[in-house]
Design a protein that fits this description.
The protein is mainly α. It has one domain. It contains 4 helices and no strands. Helix 2 runs antiparallel to helix 3, helix 2 crosses helix 4 and helix 3 packs antiparallel against helix 4.
Length: 111
């Protein structure tokens, strides 16, 4: 067990995992911000089409960044030649984590 952990730390795999998770969390918070803007319009452009476009734009950018981060993670798994079940697990984890963060963030903001 210690050899496996030592190998992970020496090859900077742990840093890659934390960087990947940080990117996912930031993209998901952007998604939550865009969703909150669509549900609770605030600011100068309240009720206008421009306000909706801003909300949808932030959501769109966040979704593109999430997909790019997912593809980067899958590419890293391909380089390490992990089985396809890990790739499927990564996709499922992305969907679950992104959904939960968006729901928790918007519930805190609406209180």
């Amino acid at each position: 067990m210690l050899k496996v952990l030592d190998r992970l730390f020496l090859q900077d795999k742990v840093k890659l995992i934390f960087d990947h998770l940080r990117n996912l969390l930031m993209c998901t918070l952007l998604l939550a911000a865009g969703r909150f803007q669509l549900e609770h319009p605030v600011g100068v452009f309240v009720g206008s089409t421009f306000q909706s476009l801003l909300g949808y734009g932030v959501v769109g950018i966040a979704l593109i960044l999430i997909v790019l981060n997912l593809f980067d993670g899958m590419h890293q798994l391909n380089k390490l030649r992990h089985p396809d079940i890990l790739k499927l697990g990564l996709i499922v984890a992305y969907v679950i984590i992104a959904t939960r963060i968006v729901l928790v963030t918007t519930s805190f903001r609406s209180c």
